[in-house]
Amino acid sequence: MAAARDLRATETADIGDVDAVELAKRHLIQPWPFAGSVGAEARALIGEGDGIYITDSTGKRLIDGPAGMWCVNVGHRREELAKVMYDQAMALSYNTPWYTMNAPSAELAKRIAGHAPGDLSHVFYTTGGSSAVETALRFMQFYNNVRGRPEKKLILSRGGAYHGSTYLSASLNGRPRDRDWMDGADELVIKLSSPDPFRRPHGMSFAAFTDFLVDQFRDTVARVGADKIGAFVGEPVQASGGVIVPPDGYLKRIREICRDNDILYVSDEVVTAFGRLGHVFASGDVFGIDPDMITFAKGVTSGYFPLGGVIISERLLEELRRSNHPDAMFGHGLTYTSHPVGCAVALKNLDLLEEGVLAHTQDVAPYFQAQLKTLEELPLVGEVRGLGLMGCVECVADRESKDPLQLDKDVGKRIDAHCHELGLLVRPLINMCVMSPPLIITREQIDDMVGILREGISRTMDDLRKEGVWRG
């Protein structure tokens, strides 16, 4: 035993001067690793952030194209948020949510409810997006149990969806490769088609494609039985699936089918909420729907502190309060539910959004979309799509057939590597490049970002031609 302690002490001393890259290779498990490198890899090391920029370990300044992970909405190094974090930690760093509460969480819940559509009026806080979706699904199960409908538990999701990494939330995912080696609650989930207009059948109009999606949804409910389906979970814009913007009217029609069949509509706004589309919530203000629940995370604190949550309809809570089971317990909670520091940061972040960031986003978003669209001039680019300050450049071998490149698993990484060298961090997704910069980005900075992305794609085309895998 003593020998083991001595060995660990010696090892610690030996690695004291080893840099972070070597420490990561020895001790850190990165998210979404491959078996061949798990626990033995290091990724790009970021040292600092300032505004829309980050600085890597070599001192290179990069535009933060993904805004961290769709989340650094008000930008890096905002002193207002850092100060609130410090002040709240010094006042109250933590309280147990099981039998105490704190003021910031109550005030934040009121302000969030004020921005939510319909009768969404109550907030349950979580630690992030995955736990927010997990909470919404567990609430659906509890709700139907209390109402005497234990068989009404199936969940409708879609191809291309991403809803999280916890067990139930990950079971909803519909992106390629997400579930290849992972288990899930497959018996609870029914997958529908992705609402991706770019991949609609050849020759089909947008209107016909919308009808196809709606008919598929309606037919699935009829085939399975509304008495068996508890919820539909959908992102207003499928973010990690490639910024899939649904056809006009699709979400409203799905909402009506859910309402007619007593299926809870859960709008997953982990990405689209808190400014990404120019509003605190996109469900009502952008898409004209009033869900039964909205999940959120990421931009609620601009990534400065882990926080997420679910906004729940007053109608659902009232039905529970009027049930014949007043002692039924929603046995769900997290150690960091309603964390005072996170809620305090979110309040200040919401101030910043309301005081100008939302208006700025609405002002520059059309320019952002128009400049990104110019990249369709490049022969490698099949489509540029997006909404608000989120966009995707999808690369294809052939515009007509829309076949992904032979090297589709590698193309996004190639573009990202070139862009990194040129001063831009990109979110590579197989054959796609996703952009979701901090909401404070200016027109001039958008020009810089798109210019670098154009050059990165052009260099990638040159590489592919030289290697003989693509002619263009």
Task: Please tell me about this protein's structure.
With 472 residues, the chain is α/β, with parallel strands linked by helices. The termini are far apart. The longest helix is centred in the C-terminal third of the chain and has 34 residues, at 340-373. The chain is globular, with a radius of gyration of 23 Å. It has helices at 2-14, 20-27, 67-70, 79-91, 103-115, 129-146, 167-171, 206-224, 250-260, 282-285, 314-321, 340-373, 408-422, 443-466, and strands spanning 46-50, 53-56, 61-64, 120-126, 154-158, 189-192, 229-234, 264-268, 293-296, 308-313, 381-387, 390-395, 424-425, 427-429, 432-435. It has 14 helices and 15 strands. Residues 1-18 have low confidence and may be disordered. Helix 13 packs across helix 14. Strand 5, helix 7 (167-171) and strand 6 form a beta-alpha-beta unit. The chain folds into 2 domains: 33-64 and 357-467, Aspartate Aminotransferase, domain 1; 81-355, Aspartate Aminotransferase, domain 2. Helix content is 40%, strand content 15%. The strands form 3 sheets. It has a 7-stranded mixed beta sheet with strand order 4-10-9-8-7-5-6, sandwiched between helices. The chain has a 4-stranded mixed beta sheet with strand order 1-2-3-13. It has a 4-stranded antiparallel beta sheet with strand order 11-12-15-14, covered by helices on one side.
